[in-house]
Amino acid sequence: MEEQGRIFAMSVKQAIVSRVREAERDVIYNEFEQKLGEIQSGTVQRFEGDTVIVNLGRNSEGILPRAEKVRSESYNVGERIRAMILEVKKVGPRVKVILSRAHRDLVRALFELEVPEIADGTIQIRRIEREPGYRTKLAVDSTDSKVDCVGACVGVRGTRIKSIIDELNGERIDIIRWNDDPTALIANALKPAEVAHIELDPQTRKALVLVNEDQQSLAIGRKGQNVRLASKLTGWDIDIMTQAELARTVEAEDQAMA
Questions:
Q1: Nearest to 25 by CA among 95, 82, 74, 89
Q2: What is the β-pairing status of strands 197-201 and 206-210?
Q3: Does position 12 have pLDDT exceeding 60, yes or no?
Q4: Which of 120, 185, 224, 254 has the highest CB neighbour number within 10 Å of its CB?
């Protein structure tokens, strides 16, 4: 009887411990779930293949998978890291938090932290397109005509945007003024290049953009990055040409039809 009593007591104790752990796990899960899309800090704990395991404290692990890492970044054990909370999972008695350094909404979250006018809704981020580690284009507008949306995001002497660029290890950020007119939006999206003329085909959502020869490489960007991000940001398939190239194309088409 005494032995059975000890077994029963141990079973009850184990059940209580299990329930307490589950309750603790649920509290931690709910806490992180409410932070989805926000920035979280932690310490690099170890590596599992290409996955970085981050200690977030309170019996929870952050997981930075290969797909959510920036190729140009490297991490060391013990290093502090900031990332966006992408997903939260219950795995056995623990909570695992999927982190991202590559998601475009990481840039959104950083701007929300750095620019009060975005946090309070005065400035709205309309669209973000990103090639992690290289370049981001961010389209913003203001609900208050007195507030310069681009200037507020840049900050006095560039202080606000500099801190974000530093956090992203030098990634280039183009802040673009949003415009409901697609012609103006495309011209803004291709900056710093200057555009001479834009022709739109609404049915195919194709845009022919004419630039001067000295602006062509700037408009296209390194490995086509500038025009590629501008196309994604605006939702238009953008073709960059000079006047001379357009004239040669038209001449070739005329000869083909003759």
A1: 95
A2: antiparallel
A3: no
A4: 185
Supply φ then ψ for residue 147, to 5 degrees: -105, 120
Secondary structure (H, E, C), 172-185: EEEEEECCCCHHHH
Question: Percentage of the chain surpassing pLDDT 90?
Answer: 74
Nearest to 226 by CA among 214, 235, 238: 238
- Structure-model confidence comparison of residues 121 and 18, the more confident one: 121
Residue 19: pLDDT over 80 = no
| pLDDT at residue 127 is higher than 80 | yes
| pLDDT band at 14; cut points 50, 70, 90 | low
Q: In what order do the strands lie in the sheet with 123-131?
A: 123-131, 135-142, 172-177
For the segment 225-250, what is each residue's pLDDT rounded down to a tens digit?
Answer: 999 999 999 999 999 999 888 878 77
| Of 99, 107, 90, the residue nearest 66 (C-alpha) | 99
